[in-house]
Amino acid sequence: MPGVELDLKDKIEILRALDELGVDIIEAGFPASSEIDRRAVQAAVREATRARIAALARASPRDVDEAAAAEAHIIHVFIATSDVHMKYKLRMTREQVIKRAVEAVERARSYGAMVLFSAEDATRSDPGFLVQVYRAVVEAGARYINIPDTVGTATPWYMEWLVSLVRGSLPPGVWIDVHCHDDFGLATANTLAGLRAGADGVQVTVNGFGERGGNAALEEVVAALHFLMGRRTGVRLELLTPVSRLVARKFGVEVPPNKAIVGRNAFAHEAGIHVHGVLRNPATYEPIEPEAVGNKRRIVLGRHSGRAAVEWALSRMGFTPEPGLVKHILNKLKEAAPRMKKVDEDTLAGWVAEYMAERGRVAVPGQV
């Protein structure tokens, strides 16, 4: 993610959290790129108790050797296959790309590691050539491939078609991942479409953090798999929100309040109709229980609040929600909320005290 730098201590802390979360594979770094990434991969191999550790490597001898030296369980080899990348970035022909990919896979296999091969910019590649590349690396020993939507230009229907094409073009037993970017806000949808078409796994990031618009968000994809598609993973759902907040803190990037699943407002309610429904039965306005993903329900007081929200807030603070007091608070909310950032319990207690003082009474929680 642009502008984010983590030291080894931070990387290890996040690694442990991901391992406890129950993810299957953690890509811990790009050993050829820096000393800290090499050490991060080595430390990850030692620290992880459940997850397998992958190391990234371009399709070059040095990169593959560095990934192997870091003792990664999986060497993730990649090379671009789209015409625009081959012409302007790699300056290689299609034949040269295939040769380079095969040599890198064979070199990685010689170390005894599992090899994951990614055709960078797969969704903008010629489909026929893409299949040709995948077949070549599978013949070279790769049993694990990835289909990346590198710049997020795929649509769900195209992703479904492409994964189906690749799935049907490779021998049984080859594992397929999808890796989707969020440039058009479609990363989660494209990921689910890929799974629907026969992909076996997903490559995701916590909070969707990543290059440009980011990647498919781990918490969104996992929750959708479990609650919408009836599929199970090894991920511990109740840790999704705590892990999200840990990564956000380490990155120094605040999670948007309206972020699906893990955002502060993901299960927050202010509108009177919504609050009334949720307090009677949460299923009226919540698709899942917030606790299932480690989040919590919030009833927010504001100018859109109704009687039910005020009664709930007063009761929660220990005050009896008598009709006159509720009306007084509602009037205060309509008047003050538009110019206040939030109405907290101190503000509410002050309004209760004001109401009681006007009537010669004292505002004491539990005695009003």
Automatic annotation (TrEMBL):
Keyword presence, Transferase: yes
EC number(s) per entry: 2.3.3.13
Pathway note: Amino-acid biosynthesis; L-leucine biosynthesis; L-leucine from 3-methyl-2-oxobutanoate: step 1/4
Enzyme's top EC category: transferase
Location of the Pyruvate carboxyltransferase domain: 1-241
Pfam families in alphabetical order: HCS_D2, HMGL-like
Entry keyword Amino-acid biosynthesis: yes
Swiss-Prot/TrEMBL cofactor(s): a divalent metal cation
GO BP: L-leucine biosynthetic process
UniProtKB keywords: Amino-acid biosynthesis, Branched-chain amino acid biosynthesis, Leucine biosynthesis, Transferase
Taxonomic superkingdom: Archaea
GO MF, one annotated term: 2-isopropylmalate synthase activity
Known partners and oligomeric status: Homodimer.
Protein name, entry field: 2-isopropylmalate synthase
UniProt source species: Pyrodictium occultum
